[in-house]
TrEMBL record:
Annotated InterPro entries: Mitochondrial_18_kDa_protein
Homology family: Belongs to the MTFP1 family.
Entry's Gene Ontology BP terms: mitochondrial fission
Tree of life domain: Eukaryota
Record-given protein name: Mitochondrial fission process protein 1
GO CC aspect terms: mitochondrion
Length: 173
Protein backbone atom coordinates (compact mmCIF):
# COMPACT_ATOMS: atom_id res chain seq x y z
CA UNK A 1 0.00 0.00 0.00
CA UNK A 2 2.88 2.41 0.68
CA UNK A 3 4.00 2.12 -2.95
CA UNK A 4 0.45 2.98 -4.01
CA UNK A 5 0.47 6.01 -1.72
CA UNK A 6 3.76 7.19 -3.19
CA UNK A 7 2.33 6.84 -6.72
CA UNK A 8 -0.85 8.62 -5.72
CA UNK A 9 -2.96 5.54 -6.51
CA UNK A 10 -4.69 5.38 -3.14
CA UNK A 11 -8.37 4.57 -3.36
CA UNK A 12 -9.88 6.14 -0.26
CA UNK A 13 -12.69 3.57 -0.31
CA UNK A 14 -10.38 0.55 -0.53
CA UNK A 15 -6.98 1.52 0.90
CA UNK A 16 -7.85 3.55 3.99
CA UNK A 17 -9.87 3.02 7.17
CA UNK A 18 -12.91 4.46 5.32
CA UNK A 19 -13.29 0.94 3.90
CA UNK A 20 -14.47 -0.25 7.32
CA UNK A 21 -17.65 1.82 6.96
CA UNK A 22 -18.75 -0.84 4.48
CA UNK A 23 -18.71 -3.37 7.32
CA UNK A 24 -20.93 -1.35 9.64
CA UNK A 25 -24.01 -3.42 8.88
CA UNK A 26 -22.18 -6.66 9.73
CA UNK A 27 -21.31 -5.20 13.12
CA UNK A 28 -24.93 -4.10 13.48
CA UNK A 29 -26.12 -7.62 12.71
CA UNK A 30 -23.69 -9.09 15.23
CA UNK A 31 -25.10 -6.76 17.92
CA UNK A 32 -28.74 -7.29 16.89
CA UNK A 33 -29.45 -9.26 20.08
CA UNK A 34 -27.92 -6.50 22.23
CA UNK A 35 -29.24 -3.25 20.81
CA UNK A 36 -32.54 -1.77 19.61
CA UNK A 37 -33.33 -2.79 16.05
CA UNK A 38 -33.17 0.88 15.00
CA UNK A 39 -29.42 0.82 15.59
CA UNK A 40 -29.14 -2.22 13.33
CA UNK A 41 -31.10 -0.33 10.66
CA UNK A 42 -28.83 2.70 11.16
CA UNK A 43 -25.82 0.45 10.54
CA UNK A 44 -27.33 -0.37 7.13
CA UNK A 45 -27.75 3.35 6.41
CA UNK A 46 -24.05 3.92 7.14
CA UNK A 47 -22.94 0.95 5.02
CA UNK A 48 -25.25 1.98 2.16
CA UNK A 49 -23.89 5.52 2.36
CA UNK A 50 -20.41 4.07 1.95
CA UNK A 51 -21.59 2.17 -1.15
CA UNK A 52 -23.11 5.28 -2.73
CA UNK A 53 -20.05 7.40 -1.90
CA UNK A 54 -17.73 4.81 -3.48
CA UNK A 55 -19.92 4.65 -6.60
CA UNK A 56 -19.90 8.43 -6.96
CA UNK A 57 -16.13 8.41 -6.48
CA UNK A 58 -15.67 5.76 -9.19
CA UNK A 59 -17.84 7.83 -11.53
CA UNK A 60 -15.70 10.87 -10.80
CA UNK A 61 -12.52 8.85 -11.43
CA UNK A 62 -13.96 7.73 -14.76
CA UNK A 63 -14.72 11.36 -15.66
CA UNK A 64 -11.04 12.25 -15.24
CA UNK A 65 -9.87 9.90 -18.00
CA UNK A 66 -9.50 10.71 -21.70
CA UNK A 67 -12.11 9.44 -24.16
CA UNK A 68 -12.79 9.65 -27.87
CA UNK A 69 -15.97 11.67 -27.36
CA UNK A 70 -18.48 12.80 -24.75
CA UNK A 71 -20.81 9.86 -25.40
CA UNK A 72 -18.06 7.39 -24.56
CA UNK A 73 -17.19 9.41 -21.46
CA UNK A 74 -20.81 9.38 -20.22
CA UNK A 75 -21.09 5.68 -20.91
CA UNK A 76 -17.89 4.84 -19.05
CA UNK A 77 -18.84 7.04 -16.11
CA UNK A 78 -22.27 5.43 -15.96
CA UNK A 79 -20.93 1.89 -16.06
CA UNK A 80 -18.30 2.68 -13.43
CA UNK A 81 -21.06 3.94 -11.10
CA UNK A 82 -23.45 1.07 -11.86
CA UNK A 83 -20.74 -1.57 -11.51
CA UNK A 84 -19.63 -0.15 -8.17
CA UNK A 85 -23.18 0.13 -6.84
CA UNK A 86 -23.92 -3.48 -7.72
CA UNK A 87 -20.58 -4.87 -6.56
CA UNK A 88 -20.50 -2.96 -3.29
CA UNK A 89 -24.21 -3.47 -2.69
CA UNK A 90 -23.74 -7.22 -2.89
CA UNK A 91 -20.25 -7.59 -1.38
CA UNK A 92 -20.46 -4.96 1.37
CA UNK A 93 -24.13 -4.84 2.36
CA UNK A 94 -26.53 -7.55 1.17
CA UNK A 95 -24.57 -10.80 1.28
CA UNK A 96 -22.45 -10.16 4.39
CA UNK A 97 -25.38 -8.67 6.31
CA UNK A 98 -27.51 -11.71 5.52
CA UNK A 99 -24.61 -14.07 6.32
CA UNK A 100 -23.87 -12.56 9.73
CA UNK A 101 -27.59 -12.45 10.51
CA UNK A 102 -27.90 -16.16 9.77
CA UNK A 103 -24.71 -17.05 11.68
CA UNK A 104 -26.00 -15.18 14.73
CA UNK A 105 -29.49 -16.67 14.46
CA UNK A 106 -28.09 -20.20 14.11
CA UNK A 107 -25.72 -19.63 17.04
CA UNK A 108 -28.54 -18.31 19.22
CA UNK A 109 -30.74 -21.31 18.41
CA UNK A 110 -27.92 -23.76 19.12
CA UNK A 111 -27.09 -22.09 22.42
CA UNK A 112 -30.74 -21.98 23.49
CA UNK A 113 -31.16 -25.69 22.76
CA UNK A 114 -27.73 -26.86 23.85
CA UNK A 115 -26.68 -25.00 26.99
CA UNK A 116 -28.40 -23.80 30.12
CA UNK A 117 -26.66 -20.45 30.25
CA UNK A 118 -28.63 -17.36 31.20
CA UNK A 119 -30.08 -15.30 28.34
CA UNK A 120 -27.56 -12.42 28.56
CA UNK A 121 -24.61 -14.84 28.36
CA UNK A 122 -26.10 -16.52 25.28
CA UNK A 123 -26.67 -13.11 23.66
CA UNK A 124 -23.07 -12.07 24.25
CA UNK A 125 -21.73 -15.35 22.89
CA UNK A 126 -23.92 -14.88 19.82
CA UNK A 127 -22.58 -11.34 19.36
CA UNK A 128 -18.95 -12.47 19.73
CA UNK A 129 -19.46 -15.29 17.23
CA UNK A 130 -20.96 -12.79 14.78
CA UNK A 131 -18.08 -10.34 15.23
CA UNK A 132 -15.47 -13.08 14.86
CA UNK A 133 -17.17 -14.27 11.68
CA UNK A 134 -16.78 -10.94 9.89
CA UNK A 135 -13.10 -11.27 8.93
CA UNK A 136 -13.66 -14.88 7.91
CA UNK A 137 -16.49 -14.17 5.46
CA UNK A 138 -15.11 -11.05 3.74
CA UNK A 139 -12.67 -12.54 1.22
CA UNK A 140 -14.87 -15.46 0.14
CA UNK A 141 -17.80 -13.08 -0.39
CA UNK A 142 -15.65 -10.58 -2.31
CA UNK A 143 -14.26 -13.31 -4.53
CA UNK A 144 -17.73 -14.80 -5.10
CA UNK A 145 -19.15 -11.42 -6.11
CA UNK A 146 -16.14 -10.88 -8.42
CA UNK A 147 -16.84 -14.25 -10.04
CA UNK A 148 -20.56 -13.53 -10.31
CA UNK A 149 -20.01 -10.09 -11.85
CA UNK A 150 -17.31 -11.28 -14.28
CA UNK A 151 -19.55 -14.08 -15.53
CA UNK A 152 -22.81 -12.14 -15.77
CA UNK A 153 -23.19 -8.36 -15.79
CA UNK A 154 -19.65 -7.42 -16.79
CA UNK A 155 -19.98 -9.59 -19.87
CA UNK A 156 -23.15 -7.74 -20.76
CA UNK A 157 -21.62 -4.29 -20.55
CA UNK A 158 -18.31 -5.40 -22.04
CA UNK A 159 -15.67 -4.55 -19.51
CA UNK A 160 -12.78 -4.15 -21.90
CA UNK A 161 -9.37 -2.55 -21.72
CA UNK A 162 -10.77 0.96 -21.21
CA UNK A 163 -13.27 -0.01 -18.52
CA UNK A 164 -10.98 -2.54 -16.85
CA UNK A 165 -9.03 0.24 -15.13
CA UNK A 166 -12.30 1.78 -13.87
CA UNK A 167 -13.64 -1.46 -12.44
CA UNK A 168 -11.19 -2.33 -9.73
CA UNK A 169 -13.01 -4.40 -7.20
CA UNK A 170 -11.13 -7.60 -7.96
CA UNK A 171 -9.00 -8.50 -5.01
CA UNK A 172 -5.58 -10.04 -5.41
CA UNK A 173 -5.11 -10.48 -1.67
Amino acid sequence: MENDIEKGDVDIFRDTPVRYLGYTNEVGEAFRAQVPVRLVHLSYVVASGYVVADAVHKGWEASQKQYEDSNQKRSRMGWAVVDTLIWQGLASVAIPGFTINRICTFTAVLLKRGVSWPGPARKWVTTVVGLLSIPIIIKPIDKSVDYLMENTLRRWYHVGPVLKDLVHHNRND
